[in-house]
Structure formats: C-alpha cells, structure tokens
Amino acid sequence: VKGLPRAELEEPLEHAKKTAGVQFDHELGVEQLKEVIGELLKTYKRHCGSPFPEDPYEQLTSAVLAVFDSWGNKRANIYRRLNNIPDSWGTACNVQMMVFGNFGDTSGTGVAFSRDPALGNPKPFGEWLPNAQGEDVVAGIRNPGPLWAADENGFVPALETVYPQLHAELVEIMRKLERHYKDIQDVEFTIQDGTLYMLQCRIGKRTPIAALRIAVDMVKEGLISKKEAIKRVTTEQLDQLLHPQVDPKAHKKLLGKGLAASPGAAAGQIVLNAEDAEAANKKGLSVILVRTETSAEDVGGMHSAKGILTKTGGMTSHAAVVARGMGRPCISGCSMMEISEADQTVVFKLSGGDLMLKAGDCITLDGTKGEVYEGLVPTVKPTTTGQFGEFLGWCDEVKVMKVYANADTPEDAANAVRLGAQGIGLVRTEHMFFRPERILHVRGMILADDPVSKKQQLDALEEMQRQDFEGIFEAMHGKPVSIRLLDPPLHEFLPKSYHDERLVAEELGISREAIHRKADQLHEYNPMLGHRGCRLGITFPEIYDMQIRAIITAAIRVSMRHVCIHPQIMVPLVMNVNEIKTLYNRIHKVAAEVIEYEGFHVTYEVGTMIELPRAALVADQIADFATFFSFGTNDLTQTTMGLSRDDAGKFLTQYIVDGILEKDPFKTLDVEGVGALIEMACEKGRNVRPDLKCGVCGEHGGDPESIGYCARIGMDYVSCSPFRIPAARLASAQAAIEMDEAAKGV
Fold first, then answer.
1. Which is catalytic among the residues 330, 682, 694, 697?
2. Is residue 697 annotated as a catalytic residue, yes or no?
3. Do 622 and 575 form a contact (C-beta atoms < 8 A)?
4. Average pLDDT of the segment spanning 583-610
5. Is the pLDDT assigned to residue 671 strictly greater than 90?
6. What angle (nearest 5°) sits at the alpha carbon of residue 339, between those of residues 338 and 342?
7. Which candidate in 318, 431, 441, 491 is catalytic?
8. 81-85, 203-207, 435-439, 615-619: lowest mean pLDDT where?
9. Positive or negative torsion for Cα 698, 421, 431, 345
10. Are the C-beta atoms of 115 and 175 separated by less than 8 Å?
11. Is 601 among the residues known to form the active site?
C-alpha cells in the first residue's frame, strides 16, 4: 500500500519460521505471530515516518488509493501493452467483507475453474488448501490438493473427500456462474468454519487448445451462438495451434532475445551461411541459420533450415517475411550477439559474461516469444482436433472478405489450399529464380553480352517457370492466381563475394572481372527506389516477355486438362499511367501470340501493385488499364512514411514507448496515412472501373487489426503467408461480425 519493499515485509515472517523450525505460516504460535507483527510495525514506521494507522477508515482509504495508483505502475503498463488495453480505461476497486480460511481445521481456501483451462475438458478443475489464506495457493508455497477425489496427489486430500457437501455446492455454483456469464469462470473461494464463501469470479484465462474446445463445446451445449464462439477465440491462439512450441516444462538456458518474427519452435546446429544450411539439409541434419541479416540470396538456405536467427532486422525484414511465408520459426533483431563467419563463431552477450558458440553447436529458437536457448530444448506440437476445421468452417460462413495466400511454389499453393485459401494473391516470381539449378541461368542472362546467349538463358528459365506455374495452377484448381512479374533489381541476383564471383565465372566460362564490372554497372545507392519493378519490364522487355509466355502457356496446358484457369498478371511498382499502359499493351501482344501459336484460348487479367503514393494519387488513370489493384503495403508504408523496414527497428521501439507512434506501422497498418492513400486509390479506381477488385498482399494481410480495417473499407481480399491463413479467416469473420453488430447498434 505504501510502496514498502516486499522482501522487508516478508523477512520477519521467514525469520520467525526459521527460528521456530517450521515450514508454513500456520504452524507458528500466537506469541510468535505477535513478535512478527511487532517487527512489521517497526518496518512500517521506519519507511513511512509515522506509526501504522489504527483508524480502520484511514486503512481502507489508503488501500483503495493503492489500487488506483497500481494502474500506473510498470507491471500494469507492460500488461496493457501486451494485451492492447488502452491507458484511458482506468481501474476499479471493490470493497468487501473479509472471511478467513485459516481459522483452523474446519477452514480452507482455493482457486477453481468451471472447466479445465489447459485442455478445455468440461470437468471443473481447481486446487485448495486447508487452514490457509488465498495467497498460500496462488504463491505456491504449499502443495495444494485437488477438487476431485479421483485426482488426489498424495499431498493434501481432495476437497471432495474432506468436504463432499461443500464440494458439490462449489461445483453447482460454478455451473450456475458459467450458465450466467456463458464463459469459463475462474473463481476464488474460502471455507470459514465449514461455510463456503465465494470471493470473486472472472472470465478464466485458457490455453489456445482450451479456447478452441470450449468455444465449440459451448455452441453445441446451446450456451452461445457460432458468432459468439468466433469472437471468443483470438487469432493469436489459433496461430499457435499450428506451430510446434518449446516444451514449457523443459529446462532452458536463455542466450538472448529478439523480435518474435515468425512463431513456432525449432532446434538444431548453428550454420552461418546458406550454402552450409543446404549442405547440412542434404545430409539429413537439423540446422538453425544464423546471419547478421538475410537477403534473397539466402532463400535456399532458409528453406533448408529449421529456423532463422538474425542479429538485425525488424518484423517485416527479409528474414521475417520469408520465414513466415515458409512457416519457419524466426527471431530477428537479436542484437545481443556477435557473428563471425570467418571464425565460424557466435558470441552471446550475457549478464554473467560472454558465451561463445561455434558452428555445429546446438541452439533452440522460440519464435513465438523471440527467445534463444542453448542446446536442444524439447518441443511439443499441439494437437488440433476435428473441432479446428469445424470452427474455421463457421468462420467461412460469416466472413465476407476473402482470404488469399502468398505462395511461390506448387507446394506452397497446395498447403495454402489445405489451410483454406480461396486463391493466391501474390506469386513472387523472383523467388523461383534463387534455386541453385536456376540462379546460374539468371546470372547467365544478366551477364550475356550477345542476344543469342541471352535468349538461350531466357528459354531455359521460361521452361522452368512454365512448370512452376502449371504446378501452382493445378494445386489451386480454378481458384484465382495473381502472379507478380519480376520485381527486384538485377544486381540482387549477382554474386557478392570474390569467392562467389570466381565460382560463377568458372561455371559460365567468363572472367571474374566481367562479373565484377557488371555488378558495378548495376549497383544502386537506393535500390528500393531504383531500377526495379515495371522499370525492369520497360528497359528489359525480354524478361517480362519470357514470364508472360510462361504464364499463358501454363494456363493453356492446364486448361487443356479440363481445369479452368484464369491467371491474373500483376505489374509491380507502377507510378505513372504510361508505365502500366506500355506494359498492358505488351502483355496483350505477347499473350495473343502464345494463344495463336497454341491454338487454345484462355482468359486472363492485367492488374497492378499500388506501392507508391503517386500511384494512389493517380489511381483513376491507372484503373483504365488494370482490372485489379493489389496494395503492396510493405513498400507503400516505407514510401509514405519515409521509413526503412530493415532499419527502422533501431528506433521504432522507442517511438512506441514514448507514444510518438501507437504501433509498429510495418506490423499494423497506419490507417491515418497509408490507409488514407489506400481508400483514395480504391475510390478513384472504382469510379472509373466499378468492378475493380482491391486487395492487400503485404505483411499486413496477416495482421488481425489490419484485416479488420481492410474489411471495413470494402476490400475484396487480403493475402498472407500460408501459415497465417487460418488466423486471417478468423480475423475476417470477426470483422464481419463487428460490422454487422455496429450496423444494428449492438
């Protein structure tokens, strides 16, 4: 109440028990307790400068004020931030009569839940202690007994055994409370001289597994509606059900913390580059790829690794985005480690001194918490029952906005369909190029100094892309597939180091100096705003021509096998109507040539990604040549706010703590700025083309709050990583319910 140190208040009691040779508070005698009280009064006076107040009203007033003051303490602030509770809500204080569970052997205290909060079983769960106060149960200073005789543990007899009548009364009260509040109840109770008193009840916290089961069971019991069940399960809970987790019971040594960039648990040997990860994977080894940062060059190694750990980067860094797309656990921005690829070491800065690990040593990542542990910590995989699919089926009945997937391979597409995707909102064709058997052809195309050599490399790439597109189309079986033409600058495909340049030179039969000259020629100081996206398609039309031929040919081949295919070709990074106009005409010209050659007609659409503020401002002009807008909110956030998603993590946390920004704009969409541009672009585009389809395919497509916003402004779809699809389906359904209730004034 007065801010006295807890340790100083506990010390007299601990000293008394030690002197008396007893373990528990209730074993102390009256005289010993009087001595403890005397010491506590001295401690109070020493800290407060005045005696402990004897007036009960003064005591009560101080206690009430302490409750209100607790709203602003550090622990409360952290809790609100973690649970998205506004500071403006404030708190309340209840004043009630005291009852005592430590009156003797006919008294006791306990905590109970109307259902099992761990697994969701309908049988009530709880613990109790005879001759004790509530704090003794909560603090865990004594081993409690169970509620039910069947669960007796050898420490304390079950409440059902000792007080069968009171046990039955408690179970009936919990049943009534649950029927009234229509949710699992967490209750505290005290028995004083054989009489049961209920101290409080509240909505019980539960694990993700329990949340799902309780919601489904309560619908079937007639307690709540399907819509209410959908509101009860959080997207975070649903997401956790899909990923292995670190065993909470296992011993763990914490090495470092970073950003929880991609959920789940992974354990394996440290490798420090992509090549070693791929080599280890071929040997059947489980590895963790540890890098200062990752780039597109590392995609093969990331796919081979069980998890990814980076020293730098944020929630939407390359490592984070790609890892989520692959379903790999990832921790980014773990700044308390130093990596030396030359020495093959990773040094973790610990409070007790540095710890150096070497490549081959084992670590475990908890991508859900952002924690790194030493060694191989056991993991557990939550089991999802048939209720998982049943629950998501209810979500699909309610939601209006569709949920698509970001998927780059036939395997990703098939997984997306399995998880409930209604289409693919983004196929990143550049990811297909980084496979070892393909990257050489890409480099050969970039480095070719004559048209014949360049065509040979493009022909090889076209065949590979066609096969990929066929696999994706077949996996989606007629569902929409939006394919983004090549986006990144060409220099990203070239080798970076002297060693890699020499190897590529040998494979292509050219000089290392020629590769280095080309890399210098393509080098850009700000590649994010440089020679990329549609600018590549205009200056190197042969690249986009190859991709268009591959898309249309694949669509024709699959359509011939009686699968209706309707591909959507997406032009990236448009800023000017003449860009989309030029490429629109070229796409139709190349597609017409393929259709005539194959003698089989397929329909297709041409759309664009809105990633630049100017594109949003002239969206009405762009809509003349685009049947759909896909908002690339990662880049749109960068270009609107002037923030680098890879570098802003260094100060964004401070911005959020200081209240400059409410949330990380790369995680949750900036509604006032970026959102205003999106709404403007949708309105302008639909004024010209009323049937214009609009969706989001950035990382925000998997963020529940951003999904809710997209639903409210009338987006047709959101597109996210395959492993985030179930949570996105839930978020879309919750948004539909919220809008419906708002319209009805609920």
1. 697
2. yes
3. no
4. 97
5. yes
6. 140
7. 318
8. 81-85
9. positive
10. no
11. no
